[in-house]
Design a protein that fits this description.
The protein is mainly α. The protein has six helices and two strands, in the order H-H-H-H-H-E-E-H. A hairpin with a 2-residue loop joins strand 1 and strand 2 (85-90).
Length: 108
């Protein structure tokens, strides 16, 4: 059984719910098979364009764009303009590196 002191310490540590919300949203993304496939491809190749993803995954451009938008919003991927096209790569954030490592150790 937890002492009152330990309970107080735990309460203090979970006051910032934004971290929990952010992590929950990240885990929701990982629960989407389309998103996982995109992340898998990005873990293998750098600077992948949405049109490349539609060709590999046989999905519509809106479906790909929707997932990329979510990943960009979470800071997992970043866009790079290459001429007229925008291509995506993994960001160099703690969350992105965690996901990349997770994919490399579980899927590859």
């Amino acid at each position: 059984m937890l002492t009152d002191k330990k309970i107080l310490k735990l309460k203090e540590k979970i006051v910032d719910v934004s971290k929990f919300d952010s992590n929950a949203n990240l885990l929701k993304l990982l629960g989407d098979p389309t998103c996982l496939k995109i992340l898998y491809i990005l873990s293998m190749e750098k600077d992948v364009c949405p049109s490349d993803l539609t060709n590999v995954l046989h999905l519509s451009m809106p479906a790909i764009s929707h997932q990329l938008s979510k990943l960009k919003q979470m800071g997992i991927v970043y866009p790079t303009r290459m001429g007229q096209m925008i291509c995506y790569s993994f960001s160099d954030t703690k969350e992105a590196n965690f996901i990349k490592k997770l994919i490399e150790t579980t899927v590859l």
